[in-house]
Amino acid sequence: MQDWVKKLSLFRGSIKTLTLMGFGLVALPLVFALLYSANQVNKLSQQGTSAIFNVAELVEVNRQISQAQSRLERFAGQYVVLKEQELLNQYLAQRVLLDSVLTQEFKQYNDIQLSELIATYTNKIVEIDQLIQSTPANLINLNQVQEHFKALSQINQKISLHSNQIINQQAKGMESSANEIKKTMLLSLLIIPITLLIAGVFIVLITRPLKVLLGKIKRLEQGSFQLPITVDGSAEIKEIADALELMRSRLHILELQKSSFIRHISHELKTPLAAIREGTELIYDNSVGELNNDQQEITNIIRTSVSRLQQLIEDLLDFNIVLDSTSLQDAEVINLNKEIEDALALRLLDVNRKQLTVSKDIAQLSLQCNRKQFSVILDNLLSNAIKFSPDKGTITIKAWVEYQTLQLSITDQGVGIASSLFDKIFDAFYQGATEHNSPIKSSGLGLTIVKELLMRLNGSISIDSDMNSPSFTTFTISLPKAKLLSPTTTSMLEKPSL
Known about the structure:
Order of helices and strands: HHHHHHHHEHHEHEEHEEE
Shape: rod-shaped
CATH class of the largest domain: Mainly Alpha
Number of strands: 7
Strand content: 5-15%
CATH topology of the largest domain: Four Helix Bundle (Hemerythrin (Met), subunit A)
Distance between the termini: 68 Å
Structural class: alpha+beta
CATH architecture of the largest domain: Up-down Bundle
Number of helices: 12
């Protein structure tokens, strides 16, 4: 079956041609089965109609024979008793009518036993005729006539019984025909799985290259531009694949240019910035002489601006990781607890400066992921939580596994975020409101970087926030390929210190 599908998949026709072929091959057996079933039902209908007419006619004939025989017996008895010629004439008229029924109505039934019974019945009537017409009226014995008619009634009863047998045979014949048609129609139902199979083959032929294309598009969406796009399929599919390949090559060139530009400009900015920062620190610390209050304030402004510029350059370097798709292939198994501890260590000064408490409820688990990108995600989420946390507040970190998917949440006790801003905060360079005297400044790229990296790692991020008292904000990320190492968790409440 798979070989057949594979051979058909080499068909180079258009999707329109494949669709028409599939529809034709699916409809053809169904139409054949429908026509055959309709023909069989028509035959059964005709047979049933004929049987119904035959039964009705046979019943009517038996009724006429019985009535004619009853009249014949009555006129014969009256003639024997009263000896009137008029009664004999009426007898003869009924005799002619009975002969007509016996000779005309039973001709269409090709039944030997019925023919023999009719012949016996006719012979018996002839005997009665001879008795009545050949014997003088005054010599005819009424009892003798009655005995003859009694024998005639017995023959008539046999005719009626045999007629019922004929009716039953026709009913059984109809039932047998109906059962045969039923079996035939049940067998014709086997065409349905055949048509479904044919439909399935053509669905695979049409959707398989589309699924391959979807995978290629998702790879482009994740920023992987190295592998060329080639797809076998119909003419339309190949045209789409060629267009995607052209787009991929251009995007790859643009990505390399962007990454190179950011690396070079960041390097060129960091070198003079380091000298400016060092000189500013020397002036601010009065290493080259005492400063008056105005000079001290100006120096502090320069020092703060240089720190913010340095943070912006570092964020641009992190954003370059998003643009650099070459690192996407460097997935490895990492220990979540160690990564979180390392991320907290990098932010230890900021945590101590605001006297924050870090609460951790982290399962012992591993994650197959790009270590560098995951560390950038953690660092940005932690720095965001620290920036918006009030002094002496608590940051809660939780991690667990659901269906081999990591669920990591970081909660701060900041002022919260309005639900109308949930989508906007992921825009580049967007900065939420912070405390007026907050020493931590940002470029507004942190959450943008987080969302982009999670998208490339097939992950997602969600927000839960409340601006009422007590206010909080929780960012929860989901990443696949997580594995629980042990059922125990690291649950602790600590205040980091130097």
